[in-house]
Every structure is written in structure tokens, then in C-alpha cells.
Amino acid sequence: MTYTEKDYDSVLPIVRERTVRWLENRFRYLNEVLQEIKKAKTTSEFMKAKQELMYCLISSMPISSDFCPFCQLHADAEGDFDCSECTYAKKHDKCGIIYPDSTWRKLADARFSLLEAIKDYWHGDEFGACKKKAAIRE
Question: For the chain, which residues make up each domain, given as ranges?
């Protein structure tokens, strides 16, 4: 069977609403992080808030099946997917970690790599905080 855009449009209201709600929650949290950046009085406070901002932005990429009209149209009642007729999968390969050449996998891998790098971006001890703490214990 060949699916048309109209077929996928049938699930769009659900996916769109889910995406909007999810992003509104993210924007609320991003605003909290923005307030932390504005309040930062030290470089350490600023860097910690900036790190959180970057992490939140990258982790906010809506690439899960919950936000995909293609996945939602091809999902069964148990939430399993039959991608054999998926229009997106035919062009970009099936989504999932077992398909290393798929566009989705490349996005997911890039996001994971960025999140790991962001975790290492700021530790909070760049100004010797650990040495000061060690000196206090002595």
C-alpha cells in the first residue's frame, strides 16, 4: 500500500498537540534557566547555567516516535511499529538504534554525542574548588 500525505495528516492533530505541550513545558524550563543566567554573579554560576541551557536545548530535539506522524500512523494498539510501508522509512531508512545508516539514528547519535560533551563542558572545579574543599577538610 502506498500512503499519501493525507493519510499521515489524519494523525497530525494528535502529534502536533503532543509536540506543542512538550515544547511549552521545555520553554517554561528554558525560561527558568534564563533567569539563572540573568542572576549569575560569578563565572561559575554563569557557566553552570549555560551548561544547563545547552543540555536542555539539545535534549529538546523532538525525535521520538511520540512526535512523529509517520510512526503514529504505523503504530498498533500495543505501540509496536510496522515500518514496512512507512513513507519516511522508504526514503530515510527505518528509525531505531539497529539501523545505523538511518537519518533518525544519525540524529540520535549526534544528540547523544553532544549531550556527553556538554556534561564535560563545565565541572565546577575549574577555579580550584576541589582544592579548596580538600584544604578545608585538612
Answer: 5-137
